[in-house]
Amino acid sequence: MIKTFKIVVLGGDGIGPEVTDQAVRLLREMEPYLSGVKFDLAEHRVGVGEYQRSGNALPESTFEACRTSDAVLLGAMGLPNVRYPNGKEIAPQLDLRERLQLFGGIRPIRLYHESDTPLKGYGKDEIDFVLVRESTEGLFYGRDVVADLDADEAINELRISRVGAERVCRLAFDLARKRNKAKKVSLIDKANVLSSMVYFRHIFDQVAKDYPDITPEHVYVDAASLFMVRKPDAFDVMVTENMFGDILSDLAAGLVGGMGMAPSADIGEDAAVFQPSHGSAPDIAGQGIANPIAMILSAAMMLEWLDHTETHRAAVALETAVSEVLSDPSHRTPDMGGKMSTTQLTDAVSSSLQKIL
Ligand code: ATP
Ligand code: MG
Fold it and tell me: Where does the record place the Isopropylmalate dehydrogenase-like domain (predicted)?
C-alpha cells in the first residue's frame, strides 16, 4: 500500500520561493528512497505578488488546498513597501494561522557548530531547546483593529482563553515527553504584573498534573531573556504567549546563527504549516544567497509530523545531513559569514543525504 501525502507548497514573496525550491528539491530526491510513501507536491499562489495580480493575497482556492492538505510548506509572505489601502501589512500567513486555528508555533533552537553562536564556551550539546508560542490570541488578539490617530489613546488587549492556554500547554508537555532531554517545560510569563498571566499560569499548572514525568517551572519573561543568553542549557521546552514568543524566538535564533537557521511549525487540531521563522528578506531577494537551512529544517519537521515510519526516517536523515554539512564551518551562506550560494549549500545537503538514505 502506497501512502500519498498531499503537500501544498506556498513560495510567497521575496526569498520565499528561493528557499522553498530547495526544500521541494530535497523532498523529490528523497522520495525514491522511501518505501510506500509518495509526495504529491502542489504549488499555489499566495502573498503580495498574488495580491498585486488578483487583488487577493490568499485566494480561496489556495486556502481550500491548504485546508484539505496533509501539510503546508510555506516560504515567506509580505513585503515592507506594499500594503493594503488602510495601511495594514499584507500578511496572509497570519490569516492562515487564524483560519486554520494553528495555535502552536513550535520553534526548535539547535546549535550545529560552536562558531555559529555569539555565546562564549557553548557548543552543540548545550544549545538545544524548543520554544512553543501560542499563536491565535495573546497580545496579537485584535490585530485587525486600526488605530484612530486622532484619539487620545490606542489600546491592544492581551487575551488568554482557557481553551487556548490548555491546548498550547498540552502541546508543550507532549513535546517534552517526546524529546529525550531534561523532561522539563518552562512557562514564560509575567504573572507578577498581568492578571491574564496569572490565569495562564493556573491553567499551565492544571495541565502539568497530567504529566507527572515532566518537571514544570515558571520563569518571568524578563528573566527568561537573560537566562537564554547566560545559560541556554537550562531550557528544554518553553511555552509562552504570542507576543513574548514572537520576541523570544528572534533572540533564540540569534543564539544559533540568525534567522536563516531557525525552522518552525505552526500546528493546529487538523492542519499544519511548516515555514522558516524568517520573513521575506527583500534586501537579498533574487541574489541566490538566501540561507536555505531554516526552510530545509522546517521540511524535516514536516516529515516528522506526517507520522509515518518512512517519513520519520526521512526526517532523521535530513536533519543528520544538515548537521553533517554544517559541521564544516565553511559550509555557510553570506548571512553567516560564508561564501556559499543557496544552491551550493543545498547541493552539499543533497549529497550528504544520498549517502544516508
Ligand atoms: P517578518 O516581518 O516576516 O518577521 P522581518 O522584517 O523581521 O520579517 P526578515 O525577513 O525575517 O525580516 O529578516 C530580517 C533580515 O535578516 C533580512 O532582511 C535579511 O537580511 C536577513 N535574513 C532573514 N532570513 C534570511 C535567510 N534565510 N538568509 C539570509 N538572510 C536572511
Ligand atoms: Mg520578524
Answer: 6-349
**CB-ligand 1 contact for 281 (6 Å cutoff):** yes
CATH 3.40.718.10 fits 1-102+276-357, yes or no: yes
Q: Which ligand is nearest to the CA of 279?
A: 1
Question: Can you tell me the ipTM of this complex?
Answer: 0.94
Cα-to-centroid distance, 253 and ligand 1 (Å): 11
Sign for the pseudo-dihedral over CA of 146, 66, 97, 111: negative
Instruction: Please identify which residue in the block is written with the cell numbers 499544519.
Output: 272
What does the pLDDT average to over 126-137?
A: 96
Residue 164 above 80 pLDDT?
A: yes
Please tell me what DSSP assigns to residue 147.
P
Q: Does 125 have pLDDT greater than 90?
A: no
Bridge partners, 252 (sequence order): none
Is 34 strand, coil or helix?
coil
Q: Do domains 1-102+276-357 and 128-254 have the same CATH topology?
A: yes
Q: Is 324 left (phi over 0), alpha (psi -120 to 50) or beta?
A: alpha
Q: Is the CB of 93 under 6 A from ligand 1?
A: no
Ligand 1 centroid, distance to 310 Cα (angstroms): 33
How many other C-beta atoms can be found within 10 angstroms of the C-beta atom of residue 10?
28
The angle subtended at Cα 161 by Cα 139 and Cα 174, nearest 5°, is 100
Question: For the residues of 36-89, what is the DSSP string, one character each?
Answer: TEEEEEEE---SHHHHHHHS-SS-HHHHHHHHTSSEEEEEE--BTTBB-TTS-B
CB of residue 335 inside a 6 A radius of ligand 1:
yes
Domain boundaries, the chain: 1-102+276-357, 128-254
82 lines ligand 1 (CB under 6 A): no
Ligand nearest to the CA of 262: 1
* DSSP code of residue 158: -
Q: Please give the CATH architecture assigned to the domain spanning 128-254.
A: 3-Layer(aba) Sandwich (3.40)
Sorted by sequence, the CB contacts under 8 Å of residue 10 that are 6+ apart come out as: 16, 20, 43, 44, 46, 47, 62, 66, 72, 73, 74, 75, 77
